[in-house]
Design a protein that fits this description.
It contains two helices and ten strands; from the N terminus they run H-E-E-E-E-E-E-E-E-E-E-H. It has 186 residues and is mostly beta strands. A hairpin with a 5-residue loop joins strand 9 and strand 10.
């Protein structure tokens, strides 16, 4: 389950991109390369969402959005680890290929409109073991909300993953990230 949570952390927010940390970007804008930060929680529950599987886990996300190169790189800190997810735009489409640094998953994140407005998106991810993550996300002035379903390779739903994040300043994200680090041994 811990490895699953790391995979999910790496993917958790890979689609919720933005040019500023305080409000969702405007659909008519083409932001320059920028970094935005988010803090919040990831909750894991039964497939129907009724039975929590442990308390929500804190997450800190730093995202580099590069419209000129068609890439989005996201670092997700959780459980004392940082996982990096890279999204690469398919030509001039609203679909991005997604993978992590360890190649533990691949798939797509498809945005509903201008991919650099990033207001709604759909996940279609396949893990290295054949299991799948499907779901959707959105970004509003209140922050990022995602809901994903993790299914076994045979298609059996296993867990629901929900993210709730709010925009944060670089300083807030740095402090929150430090609080997630494992204690130093003496």
């Amino acid at each position: 389950m811990k490895r699953l949570c790391r995979w999910l952390a790496a993917l958790t927010l890979a689609a919720a991109m933005g040019a500023c940390a305080s409000a969702p970007p405007r659909a008519d804008s083409k932001p320059a390369a920028s970094v935005s930060h988010f803090v919040g929680t990831m909750s894991v529950s039964s497939p129907d969402g009724k039975i929590p599987y442990g308390p929500p886990k804190k997450a800190v996300v730093s995202r580099t959005l590069s419209p000129s190169t068609g890439t989005i790189v996201e670092d997700v800190a959780q459980d004392g680890m940082v996982n990096t997810t890279t999204l690469t735009r398919r030509a001039d489409t609203s679909t991005f290929d997604a993978t992590d640094a360890g190649h533990t998953f691949s798939g797509t994140v498809a945005f509903k409109s201008d991919p650099f407005a990033m207001t709604e998106w759909e996940y279609a991810i396949v893990m290295a073991d054949g299991s799948r993550i499907s779901g959707h996300g959105s970004w509003s002035t209140e922050g990022i909300r995602t809901q994903k379903l993790f299914s076994a390779p045979d298609g059996t739903p296993k867990v629901q993953i929900a993210d709730a994040l709010r925009p944060a300043t670089e300083s807030e994200a740095s402090s929150a990230r430090a609080s997630l680090e494992p204690p130093k041994r003496q």
